Amino acid sequence: MAETDLMRLPDMPLHDPFIVADKKTRAYHLYTSNDPSVSGVDGTGTMVYRSRDLRDWTRPVVVFLAAEQQGIWATDGGWAPEVHAWGDRYYLFTTLHDQDKPLPVPPPNQWGAPFRTPSHMRGTITAVSDSLLGPFTAVDPSRPTPPEHLMTLDGTLYVDPSGQPWMVYAHEWLQTIDGTMEAIRLAPDLSRSIGEPIFLFKASDASWISEQIPGGVPHQLPPYITDGPQLYRTPDGSLLMLWSTYEKNTAGQDGTVSGGYVQTYAVSKSGDLTGPWQQQRPLVRDDSGHGMLFETFDGRLMMVLHRPFDNARGKLYEMQLLGDELRVLRRRADLDGGG
């Protein structure tokens, strides 16, 4: 491929990055929401960049467009695309939403949330292809995969030791005030969810979220946000979940709270999806997040995330596992261009 056709991470619009290291082609596939300014294709969907070395990337190819799915329930969003091998096919998970489809106001939750913000249909769909380069076709275009009365996002695939597939997703703070991580079983063909969701943890379980709120300000200030789950099994059998939230570092007299996006993680030392989940200190701050772990072709553990939240670009970190403790070894500015 000609040098002029290649891109580098500082020049690549990139929100909610997800990398598949494909051993068959020895190429890294980096999926993100479609951006017409670089793909040349209009519409809500998913595009993929490819690289041999994590430094130089091909111009993106669009692999999924919501508007091309007959009978699709929503055509906005296209957030947090992930691609997973399952059986002999590839499955795309991506979040859609429709602001014109309001959801009923739920009853007060178990934490006594004092108010409810109007919510609308939002959830992750699954789409299937024979190729990492698509095209991907929605498995069930009529509804999201999690229960449609829940406002959810950022679904990811987890397969338990028995081979049962699950979707783990974030339940929006707009419905819960204190955002949660939940999981639901999937059918063997990933076409639908089975049974009822199970609760994993809530955002405020990460006690450090409120550490910097000034004295005298109530600590139960909404919202507490859950974003971007990804599951990773450690060599010692523990289960890690990368996830992101907002660190509340300032609070105004009117009760408004602001804070930076952060990349953190939780550990299930039992190795079971149901936990108990122990919250760990943030891995990366500086308005960074929605990261995921992957292994390079030479065996290094890496994390990709985006920074800043607006006008995001991909950032790469070399990681280390010590038992169930995840550490940042070094930032790979040589690959992601710094900044």
UniProtKB/TrEMBL annotation:
<dbReference type="Pfam" id="PF04616">
    <property type="entry name" value="Glyco_hydro_43"/>
</dbReference>
<keyword id="KW-0378">Hydrolase</keyword>
<dbReference type="InterPro" id="IPR006710">
    <property type="entry name" value="Glyco_hydro_43"/>
</dbReference>
<keyword id="KW-0326">Glycosidase</keyword>
<dbReference type="InterPro" id="IPR023296">
    <property type="entry name" value="Glyco_hydro_beta-prop_sf"/>
</dbReference>
<dbReference type="InterPro" id="IPR050727">
    <property type="entry name" value="GH43_arabinanases"/>
</dbReference>
<comment type="pathway">
    <text>Glycan metabolism; L-arabinan degradation.</text>
</comment>
<protein>
    <submittedName>
        <fullName>Glycoside hydrolase family 43 protein</fullName>
    </submittedName>
</protein>
<dbReference type="GO" id="GO:0016787">
    <property type="term" value="F:hydrolase activity"/>
</dbReference>
<comment type="similarity">
    <text>Belongs to the glycosyl hydrolase 43 family.</text>
</comment>
